[in-house]
């Protein structure tokens, strides 16, 4: 996260950049929506000093640093505050392009920190589990439904945990079951509680979340992190969906020929049941 980058480099920065960095840490809600010139004026340094700080923190320029600050700030806001912030700072222009560009830019900036190792380990755990239990509530419910749909094509026992019955489902789970929680800021309490309860019962747990500092990661044996984005009051899951796709592909890699056999059988069943419309594009 941007705050960690600032804290790690703070003592090694020149005095002017240090002053800007300390302002960012002390007054994040104000700093995140200033231009480089305005920020320099507030701190008492030149605009170029602010721009050099952005480069020292690993950002292509100050706009990218400011976007990172804004995104971090949005994680801490209520839905109403996000909407109000969007209404006061939203840019003009093509709305569709702006929304998609935000997700694409966030995804590109995250590429350097995304690694295959955590995905590989979780894919192995999925393939060796006796049963898989998924929990993700509110907006993250969509991710659980998407992920669970494709897992069920290949793995025999994929279950969805209910928020008010998770204790009973955890207690009844068979040995070597794997519990996966999916949650992003703002984290849902029941998702965190469910994963912690499963872990305390001696069952394997995994978290798909935004950072190792996420409360979901504390009681997870496997942690896969990926950033999400926010569009006003909406949680945008374009980047987490991409990660889930990578995880699903790694699962089928581990299954080997079994994955092809299962898909062949499913295609026969779908054709017989006329699940999909036959269409011809012109």
Record keyword descriptors for this entry:
two-stranded antiparallel ribbon; five-stranded parallel beta sheet; Arc Repressor Mutant, subunit A; 282 residues; Rossmann fold; 7 strands
Q: What structural class do you assign from the helix and strand content?
A: alpha/beta
Unreliable segments (pLDDT under 50, ≥5 consecutive)?
Answer: none
Number of domain units = 2
Judging from the principal axes of the Cα atoms, what is the shape?
elongated
CATH class of the largest domain: Alpha Beta
Rounded average pLDDT: 87
Gap from first CA to last CA: 48 Å
Return the string of H and E elements: HHHHHHHHHEHEHEHEEEEHH
The main sheet orders its strands as: 2-1-3-4-5
The CATH architecture of the largest domain can be named as 3-Layer(aba) Sandwich
Report the CATH superfamily of the largest domain: Glucose-6-phosphate isomerase like protein, domain 1
Query: What is the beta-strand fraction?
Result: 5-15%
Number of separate strands: 7
As a percent range, the share of helical residues equals: 55-70%
Rg computed from alpha carbons, rounded to a whole number of angstroms = 22 Å
Number of helices: 14
Assembly type: single chain
Q: What composes the largest sheet?
A: 5 strands, parallel
CATH topology of the largest domain, what is it called?
Answer: Rossmann fold
């Amino acid at each position: 996260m941007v705050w960690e980058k600032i804290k790690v480099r703070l003592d090694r920065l020149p005095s002017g950049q240090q002053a800007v960095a300390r302002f960012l840490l002390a007054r994040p809600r104000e700093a995140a929506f200033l231009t480089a010139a305005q920020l320099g004026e507030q701190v008492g340094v030149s605009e170029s000093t602010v721009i050099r700080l952005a480069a020292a923190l690993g950002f292509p320029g100050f706009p990218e640093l400011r976007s990172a600050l804004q995104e971090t700030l949005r994680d801490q806001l209520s839905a109403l505050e996000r909407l109000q912030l969007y209404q006061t700072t939203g840019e003009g222009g093509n709305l569709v392009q702006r929304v998609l560009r935000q997700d694409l830019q966030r995804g590109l900036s995250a590429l350097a920190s995304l690694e295959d190792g955590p995905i590989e380990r979780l894919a192995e755990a999925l393939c060796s589990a006796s049963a898989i239990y998924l929990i993700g509530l509110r907006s993250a419910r969509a991710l659980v439904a998407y992920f669970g749909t494709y897992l069920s094509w290949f793995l025999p026992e994929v279950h969805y945990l209910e928020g008010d019955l998770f204790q009973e489902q955890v207690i009844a789970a068979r040995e070597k079951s794997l519990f996966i929680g999916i949650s992003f800021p703002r984290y849902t309490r029941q998702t965190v509680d469910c994963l912690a309860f499963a872990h305390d019962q001696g069952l394997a747990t995994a978290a798909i979340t935004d950072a190792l500092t996420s409360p979901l990661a504390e009681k997870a044996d496997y942690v896969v992190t990926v950033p999400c984005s926010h569009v006003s009051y909406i949680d945008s899951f374009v980047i987490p969906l991409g990660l889930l796709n990578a995880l699903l592909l790694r699962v089928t890699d581990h299954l080997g020929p079994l994955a092809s056999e299962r898909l062949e059988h499913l295609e026969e069943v779908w054709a017989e049941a006329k699940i999909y419309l036959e269409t011809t594009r012109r």
